[in-house]
């Protein structure tokens, strides 16, 4: 069951100043919403970005097709969705190519700075934490084993439909027995993570380390994250400032 919550867009952006302060805009209510769960993306959010997605897409699609699709989809290419219409043999070759790039990513896997500390904070507040990725379950298992930070549930692309469809997030909310409007989706992709969170009726937080996204991107996609940060380390303060974190 989907619980939708109407709320004012709040933008929190880390300014490049010595004080490293978080600025807030357009906050028109003092009432704090309850938050009982946080769901994270993995690649580029909980882990340092290492996969060369542009090279992967070129290898799967070919240079000409890659350029055509990129021009038609300036916010990003949904490679998994694109190859679903291909023949079985062609799909298999594409998945093998994708798996090769993902294996390279696993070999270089690093936890994102601030991730372990943020998880410790969530644990101290008894806030549940889950994970949704378009990577495979094997990558999730290696992440859990290597860094000893466990997310439950943790869904890979074996769970269908995958992001940006809201079903994985709704499944986690159902498993937790927590309505989506008491959950936050955190990720670095506007078209995947923020779309998934918005579709489920959850709060959304866009991790944008490099300033990739701006107002034009939000307007074009119609996807406006509730919060935007450039570091996981800023989410701790964001949660304490804006939410009721009582069990």
Major sheet summary line: 6 strands, parallel
Cα shape: globular
Mean pLDDT: 86
> Distance between the terminal alpha carbons, to the nearest Å?
22 Å
Q: How many domains?
A: 2
Radius of gyration: 18 Å
The low-confidence runs, each spanning 5 or more residues with pLDDT under 50, are 1-28
Order of helices and strands: EEEEHHHHHEHEHEHEHEHE
- CATH homologous group name of the largest domain: HAD superfamily/HAD-like
Protein name: Haloacid dehalogenase-like hydrolase domain-containing protein At2g33255
GO molecular function: phosphatase activity
InterPro entries: HAD-like_sf, HAD-SF_hydro_IA, HAD_sf
Structure in words:
The chain is α/β, with parallel strands linked by helices. It folds into two domains: 37-48 and 110-242, Rossmann fold (3-Layer(aba) Sandwich); 53-107, no CATH class. 41% of the residues lie in helices and 13% in strands. The protein contains ten helices and ten strands. It has helices at residues 53-61, 63-72, 79-83, 88-107, 115-124, 137-147, 167-176, 190-200, 215-221, 235-242; strands spanning 13-14, 22-23, 33-34, 37-40, 128-132, 154-155, 183-187, 203-207, 227-229, 243-244. The strands form three sheets. The chain has a six-stranded parallel β-sheet, with helices on both faces. A two-stranded antiparallel sheet has the order 1-2. Strand 8 (203-207), helix 9 and strand 9 form a beta-alpha-beta unit. The two termini are 22 Å apart. Residues 1-28 have low confidence and may be disordered.
